[in-house]
Design brief:
Length: 433
């Protein structure tokens, strides 16, 4: 018996809409299914993760996942859930983005090996680049009426004034292009199921309709969506004040990535641990019970942050993220500071007061450097002396034993920073330019 993919999604809260007969069809044997992603950036963000996790669960249930990168449709833009038309990208940029996305998704799906359900990646640009307008009109256009297309919710919203600039013909035909993707994959790769976010339901059903109208009503093609992920407070999931939480470490460091999951609410943690991890139901139920008994321990958030950070990045990155978190909120040493890359170091201390001094200050006593005009690290030199004498001041996580200790280049973190700490949690950062 194959594991029931639909039931797996259902208990995880990852099932929104499903075409009749889909669950029964999936139980008959291995099914090939695809999910499309738009390569408008060279990294996915966590808003894409629910769809990628659907593919992951699909493969674990014995089915074959296809990730379709929309190289062609990415040049056009999709009106679903959007009020403005997307910027168009050139083919060189799209190819670069595709390769970067595949590298990220390979951490979730098995693209290698000889298993019949190994993952595949396809790009609709490969079959659309030589597809003429006459071909499109003859093969696709004649099978779907304008009335059918106008009835789609995404189209009606754009035509009823939600979009400032209306709906372009290019975007209007998007559902036909996405429908043709399904038809092409059905005919050439025997793909019979399309997965996607719930905002894609209209486009996805156009695909199943096109397949049946062109190939006959007996053609077996299905669609299944996951809900759009939200936060308990109603705000958009995956967004912070600084923007998206990306999977690319150069856009979002593993430390910031880890902190995002660590700081979600209890209600969201219960939901997210089902959606964004592969932990089984008994394990998750036990974690939820433990959390409810003692919410202060934040058991769910910690396990969620660990699982997702390890999956997206690596165990080494997770270890560094935990160590970086402990620098502010637990015990740490100068060695812990030295092990951080500069971006992570800055992320850890992003909310700490910062000051700058010139490099000519190196060689001066600490009391002179940290009490310059404009600095508010210490009330005065005499107060600094008292604090140092009482053992209450640290430099780079090491106790400052004398207020007049000479500061040299060897004290600099990343050849640039001096971290001053008063008491347990009062930090200041001095950049030496």
């Amino acid at each position: 018996m194959m594991k029931n993919f639909v039931e797996e999604l259902r208990w995880r809260g990852m099932l929104a809409q499903i075409m009749p007969g889909t669950e029964e069809f999936l139980q008959k044997g291995m099914v090939s299914a695809y999910l499309g992603t738009d390569p408008t950036a060279d990294s996915l963000h966590i808003g894409h993760l629910c769809g990628i996790m659907m593919l992951r669960h699909l493969q674990h249930c014995g089915h074959k996942p296809y990730l379709l990168v929309g190289g062609a449709t990415g040049m056009i833009g999709d009106p679903s859930g959007k009020s403005q038309e997307r910027n168009l990208l050139d083919s060189e940029t799209l190819y670069h983005n595709q390769e970067a996305i595949k590298q990220q998704v390979s951490k979730f799906l098995d693209f290698d090996g000889d298993a019949p359900n190994k993952a595949e990646m396809v790009n609709n640009y490969d079959w659309m680049k030589d597809f003429s307008f006459l071909d499109f009109a003859r093969i696709v256009g004649k099978h779907i009426t304008v009335n059918y297309m106008m009835a789609k919710e995404s189209v009606k919203k754009r035509l009823n004034g939600e979009a400032r600039d209306g709906l372009s013909f290019t975007e209007f035909t998007y559902q036909l292009l996405q429908g043709y993707d399904f038809l092409y994959l059905y005919e050439h790769n025997r793909v019979q199921l399309q997965l996607g976010g719930n905002d894609q339901w209209g486009n996805m059903t156009t695909g199943t309709e096109l397949i049946r109208r062109k190939l006959g009503q007996e053609a077996e093609a299905y669609a299944l969506t996951c809900p759009l992920i939200t936060k308990a407070d109603g705000n958009k999931f995956g967004k912070t004040e600084s923007g998206n939480i990306w999977l690319d470490r150069n856009r979002t460091t593993p430390y910031v990535f880890y902190q995002f999951w660590l700081n979600v609410s209890d209600e969201d943690a219960e939901k997210y641990i089902k959606i964004f991890t592969s932990l089984d139901r008994p394990t998750i139920d036990a974690l939820i019970e433990e959390q409810r008994e003692d919410p202060a321990r934040r058991t769910l958030q910690r396990r969620l942050a660990e699982e997702v950070t390890r999956m997206v990045h690596s165990q080494a990155d997770l270890d560094m993220a935990i160590a970086a978190s402990n620098i502010l909120f637990g015990k740490a040493t100068k060695q812990n500071l030295l092990e951080l890359d500069e971006q992570t170091f800055n992320d850890v201390f992003q909310d700490v007061p910062r000051y700058e001094v010139g490099r000519e200050c190196l060689g001066l006593p600490a009391v002179e450097i940290f009490n310059q005009e404009g600095m508010q690290i210490f009330p005065s030199k005499s107060e600094m002396r008292k604090l140092v004498k009482g053992g209450g001041v640290s430099l780079n996580k090491e106790k400052l034993n004398t207020f007049d200790r000479i500061i040299t280049a060897e004290d600099l973190i990343a050849n640039k920073y001096l971290l001053i700490q008063k008491g347990k949690k009062n930090y200041s950062l001095v950049s030496v330019k």
